[in-house]
Amino acid sequence: MYGAVTSTLSKMLTSPCIQRVRQHMSVINWKTANYGCLMLKVRLCHSFDQSMDLTNGNYPASTVHSKRKYRSNSSPNQMASSQVNHILKANEYSFRVTGYEGRSGGSVVGLESNILASNSPSEDRRSAATCLQSRGMLFGVFDGHAGSACAQAVSERLFYYIAVSLLPLQTLLDIEEAVENDRPVMPMLQWHKHLNDYVSMDAGKLYFNSLRTYWQEHIDLHEDTNDEDIPTALTNAFKRLDNDISLEAQVHFGDPLSLCTPLRVALSGCTACVAHVDGDDLHVANLGDSRGVLGVQEADGSWSALTITNDHNAQNPDEMQRVLSEHPSLERKTVVKHDRLLGHLLPFRAFGDIKFKWSSELLNRMSEARPDILSGNEFAKMVPSNYYTPPYLIAEPEVTHHKLRPQDKFLILATDGLWELMHRQTVVQVIGEHLSSLNWQKPLTAVSFTLGQMQRLLQERKSRALSALEDENSVTHLIRHALGSDGFGSVDPRRLAKMLSLPQDLARMYRDDITIIVIHFNNPVM
Amino acid sequence: MRSCVRSSRALSPALFPRLLSDAGCWGTRPARRGLWSTPRNLSSGADPQQQTPLPSQARVVICGGGIVGTSVAYHLAKLGWTEIVLLEQGRLGAGTTRMCAGIVSVAKALFIESKMADYSCALYERLEEETGVKTGFVRTGSLCLAQNQDRFLSLKRLASRLKVMGISCNVLKPKEVAKLHPLVNIHDLVGALHLPGDAVVSPPDVNHALATAAAAHGVQIHERTHVNHILMEKGHVTGVETDRGHIECEYFVNCAGQWGYELGQASETKVSVPLHGCEHFYLLTKPLEKPLAPNTPVVMDMDGRIYVRAWQGGVLSGGFEKNPKPIFTEGRNQLDVHNMLEDWDHFEPMLSALLRRMPGLESCEIHQLVNCPESFTPDMRCLMGETPGVHGYYALAGMNSSGLSFAGGAGKYLAEWMTYGYPTANVWPLDIKRFGNLQSSRTFLRHRVMEVTPLLYELKVPRWDFQTGRQLRTSPLYDRLDTQGGRWMEKHGFERAKYFVPPGKDLLSLDQSKTFYKPDWFDIVGAEVKCCKEAVCVIDMSSFTKFELTSSGDEALVLLQHLCANDLDVPVGHIVHTGMLNERGGYENDCSVVRVKKNSFFIISPTDQQVHSWSWIKKYMPNDPQLHLEDVSWKYTALNLIGPRAMDVLSELSYVSMTPDHFPSLFCKEMSVGYANGIRVMSMTHTGEPGFMLYVPIEYALHVYNEVMSVGQKYGIRNAGYYALRSLRIEKFFAFWGQDLDSFTTPLECGREFRVKFDKDMDFVGRDALMQQRQAGVTRRFVMLVLEDHDTELDLWPWWGEPIYCNGQLAGVTTSSAYSYTLERHVCLGFVSTPAGPDGAPTPITPDFINRGDYEVDIAGQRYPAKAKLYPFSSLFAQQRRRKDDMELSNFQGK
User: Strand order of the sheet with strand B236-242?
Assistant: First the structure.
């Protein structure tokens, strides 16, 4: 038995679930060396959880015991389905808009989201918030690269910049006055966060000052924000934030204490796909290769996908054209190499990544001032080769507007980790069927059926529904499909378990971090 | 809110206008796409606008024109009542009645239920002749199938119970089933029970026939009349407010079915009618290729959770699923009963069960899936009788989907109840007074009916408890006892410990522990009983109903002397066991009364007597401001210290000698226990064992319990539960009200003449009946039967309801049973009576008949010899103990 335990353990330790365990067990004194002890505690924790559930549900205690007995029978070599579920559900989040919040979102009834990490720690981030001073709700996925610092900062800050851009002048004045006089400020955003979506505390003051400067400029420059013009507001917010990230890094790069924050943020990068929903107006600002897809239900009940963003990478000819046109034709061969910007970067637009934005003088000055930050960085060289006419990378988003129709049932925002694994049509199909199976579709009128035909139909529906019902959260359900699909529309549990128990270095080759937000729109099905 | 029955599916039970007192009540006929197509006579549809006005006055107003309401009207009219008005908000039989499956079966859980079903069946059969209305009655018989041995056992138990009532039934082998039904797949069957008397009818037609007959007897029926609320004055019904005007009346009967709960709430004094709706589905098929004969037996495959009957050449099949869908929790909503949605996915398990049972139906075409909401009650039994608190307000509802089977009999009993003050049979299990306001929460009902609905077809083994709606009322010690291994059951919402699982020992899970044989807790309870006999045990008995009756003068004593059969004019501090009898001399309550002060009495009654006993006392209580009755159940925690060392524990805690010399039996004293003062200590244990009951004000409960447990340690104290208590009291021949005693049992019949104050020249309720019975001699007698030649390990255990045979002839039925750890035998308590004399009248019973007879107890068809006793054998207990002492001494010698 002990052997079996350790073998499971080694699997667990090399899998991404270690991350989850680490978070989960933070109370217990964690010692990496003490594997056996850890395993025991994990087991204990499991059964404890379960018995808690049962006693709360007022079952007799004897049931608890039998459950425990059953648990110990599960095969030690195969990752148990409860373990699989634990990994998949560790970061799942769902939020239902109640009447009170509903006034601002209007058409949004709820959101579901999940992050499945492949990198350790995950470089993806997600955000969702309700705008309190203006109308609408904001949702975003952020795919970081070269570390998670930039994605973290953007996921925290971007929505504030957007909120400020959308606020009427009078509100900004009120806020400024309150800050000036040390009075409590009105909150701008109501975040909808998972417990694991942490906030970096150390840079709060810096971030705040940057934001304050932004609204002060707004107050100085503008008579009033034209709140009709959401695309401009979104674009301004994106550009301004990237600018601030860059400026903060310049101001602070001489400061050796700022190892973690502004410079780290600016050296790493992230893409962003942000949706703003206000009534039936949907705006999606996209920057990079994450994607927003609408789930549309046709009149006959079938599902189709409507992509409302364009990827900013080499696969998009328009984007390719843009990048090439911004640089002298001499650089035609070097700007994009192996589908990557300067041979390095997959997305063609991103936050941060000053190595593709700053002038080479500035970059060289920085590497001289701070040789320490280069060590361990994956781009060992500070200045990329063929770096002639920076900036190569922009942070200007492409904003699309869509009027929501009754058949638009949900919007999926997801990082490229998902789209690599699954076609958008399949994605919409899986989520759509999950929705309708949770709501038990009414079958056809049975008049012409025989009992036998009806039974077969019902049993088929039931087995499909059961697999869907395993996950209440449709995003978790989607991830389960993305990883474990047997190619015929259902999940192969063994494949899924294998995908999840891959050692981390291997995992990165099979899958990227996956971050998905599904936003459900008002419709009678929900 | 007048309901409009405009759904295309609705049926009009068009009655003969000439039979009706006011033909104008009948509405126009909507287009019909009905389930039940029997030829009907068309009525000349009158315009609803021209409805005849309601009478301004009536004796009885019945609300609800379903099968239940019309049955009540019919039986009241038969019993000679006049001025009966029946109000129906839509059309007659437009609710559950219209859509129910139409099966009348006697396969029911209780004697009284089988009895009602049997009567209903006979009634429906003769209705056609009586009224000329076709009722679709076909005596098809029914087959209850068993897929496993446990189910077969429960069917055999049912069979022996039905035989007691003279209802014919046969236990069949699977092969014989195939002969009776052409479609049944018998390969996975163990056996079956055939009930040849069961029948199918067309429910709306029966409803129609009952209404026609009632109308012929002068009952006024008004459709499309909605009852808004019930008017009351000084606790009496005075009238009914409808949307068409006001009717003054003396009696009101709530037969509103699904809407009974809401109607109960719609009166000044709210009336609790605890029922809740659940969706119920059944399937109709088109005729088979070779149409199924209309007299094909009904099949009840309870393991498959389905029933099947022949319907118009095809079948009708429904079931009671594991995951029922409760409905109408928020009361009536936009979902009209007639427009309920079909839910095929929900029906899938039942469809699969149907095709497994009758594979031949595979190619049969579907006609329709019907969703027919049914109402269910918290304990799976219907609600009948006068509601507590309001005189003249009767209810009959909550049929648990057996409305058709029960309606005839239940209507008859309710009519008798209203006429004579009580029906001709013991209906306590159905009495609405078994519930109180505490079962009236919508959340509770919703959760409980989700358990009750599947339970209808689930295997019911001895000692099952409801698992939902629990932990409502608990003692302050609940958590303490629970952590010490307490396993719980519920009575009247109160959690009571069954037994305590010792640390390290584990019992089977609930599902696995279901058995008709020796249960897994056998040794645990045995150890508790042993501890009660040899050392001391604590049982938390806080659930008992406790009243305090006080007065400034002697009004309290006068009232109790009138109510109780025993003499209560005893010195202060004495405890009197007494019955409260009805006019027939039967027990309405069996209680212990303590004279706490000269004019203050403490009345302890069984737990489920809380509502019934209260209203019984209130009924006789003069409206005197000097007299005060208070329910103090919640104020006291009751600890029962059972065992020979109980007095040592108590005297150590109170510095008072507790020996019988200082503290005689059946005596009560307020004293201090530990730091707590004012504890009522009573020298009785409800088991016949030595010990004390402590009535502790709740704030002291934990303290007293802790003190008792810590001091008791050296005397070997431990917790015990109600199973131990039950074993102790049954081996000592103690009868409990509700199980052994009912309102038809007199003290003379259970050997309690010594608790009746015949010698005092004092009148009390029931005295005349008892005097008469004493003169004539009793014809039935409560006896104790000790099973012999019964192997506790291997044989089926008795439960209750087993037939008792004397010299090979049926003599009675058991009422309760337990394993006696002292006798090492099973003990059954029950009633026996002598065979009828030559003139057909029952003959008085003699001690000889008891002592000389050869007795047998029939457990699921197997008869076990038993020794009948009229008195507990105290000698045997002493002997047993002596022999045990010898054993222990010899053990010392041997080695």
Answer: B227-233, B236-242, B245-248
